[in-house]
Structure formats: C-alpha cells, structure tokens
Design a protein that fits this description.
With 231 residues, this protein is an alpha+beta fold. It has two domains: 72 residues, OB fold (Dihydrolipoamide Acetyltransferase, E2P) (Beta Barrel); 146 residues, Recombination protein O, C-terminal domain (de novo design (two linked rop proteins), Up-down Bundle). It has five helices and eight strands. The strands form two sheets. The protein has a five-stranded mixed β-sheet. A three-stranded antiparallel β-sheet has the order 7-6-8. The chain is elongated and about 65 Å long.
Amino acid sequence: MILRSIRYGEADRILHLYSPEDGRLGAIAKGARKTKSRFGARLEPFTRAKMILRVGKGDLMAVSAVETIEANAGLRSSAASLDWAARASDAVARLLDGPDPHANAYNLLVNALASVAADQSLATKATQVSFRLKLLVAIGLQPHLSSCAGCGSKEAITAFSGEAGGVICRECGGDGFPLGGEALDWMVSALGSPLAQTGATDERALRQAERAVNDTVEFHANIRLRPAAAR
C-alpha cells in the first residue's frame, strides 16, 4: 500500500510503503514524474500495488516495476475522502514505523480505504476514530473497555486512563479523564461493527473517544496522531 508519495528532485518520487510481509518500507521511483514515465499513474497515494523493489543507495529501495491491484480512485473524488485516506494512512505510518509486519493492520487499511473509495459518505470523523480504535486492536494495543482496568469492577465506570490502558471506575480515578457512558457505548459498538456500519454519536462523545485513542497511543507507543477529520 502506498501511504505517501513525495516529489523528489526534478523527476523522481519517494514513496512511503506498507507491506504485509515486510512492514514499513521507503522507496524511490526514478523518473516517475516524467511525462513518458513507465510508471504512469500507478504510484498515486492510497494505491494498492505489486512492486518489484531492488536494494538501492542508503535506506531507500528502488522501484523497478509496478502493477496496480486497486487504485482506489474514488478517494480522489472529494476533498473529504482524500483527507480521510491521508489521515488513516498517516496513523498507520506513525504507529508502524519499522520493518516488523502487521498483516492485520495492513488488511484493515486495505479494507478501510476500499470502503471509503466506494462510498465517500463514510469519510467522517466518526469512521476515522473507529478506524483508529480497530488499528489499536490490530497492533495489540486494544483499550480495556469491559471493566475497570485498575480493579476489574464493572460498576461506576467514569473515566479513561491511557496509562492504565482502558476505562477506570470512580475509586481508581487517578490520572484518567472523564468518559461518559455514551462515549463508552459508542467505542464498544465501533469495535464490534464493520467500518461502514459505524454508528452516530454526539460531538462530545466522539471527542472523548478520540482522546481515549490518543492517550493510549501516547502512553504506550510514545507517538502523537494527527487529529481526526473535522466532520
């Protein structure tokens, strides 16, 4: 999957890639921006492709050949869907910045981009937060939502703690931030539903769910994600 494509020099492109077998990769496509380039339009961001890569200079592989599997052209039909795809791909790039492969995360991204490409109305903040929740599960950082992450109680759940790794009760409040019942219910529902069936919720609950994702990532992976889309 092409996560990002950057202009380089007079005619080249540097690609940020994610492979289910090799994890995160960087590659350079020589002459990709020339009018008569052999690559054509096959190196657009969010394209799923088969590539022949050879060892290049430094850390970048060199692209020898490309075959498109899925162009996801629908993502480029609206600013909202293009932005959604960029944020989803950026989340994968930040969380999986290394050679270790995560096939589940790759498949999640492939399916999410295909879904939004097919239906641009899915390009919302709610589906972006849902995608990120599912991404945490795919890489083994699933937040604990069924009971207090501190003491195991299922009663009086009032907050979320990134350090604890999930929801916490009133007694274990500690460093958590307030998490309402609607936000918790939405998170549970989002994790149990396909992306295309992500339910609606109010802006306050969505902000809390996004903060739960961000706090989990910042504490356990020591990185920051870009904000989810505005709408």
